[in-house]
Amino acid sequence: MEQSGREIVVGTVGDLALGETRKFLLPTAGEPTEAFLVNVAGEVHAWVNRCRHVEITMDWVEGRFLDETRCWIVCATHGALYAPATGECVSGPPVGKFLIRVPLRTEGDRLIATVPEGL
Ligand code: FES
Question: Which ligand 1 atom is at minimum distance from the Cα of 54?
Answer without folding.
Answer: 1
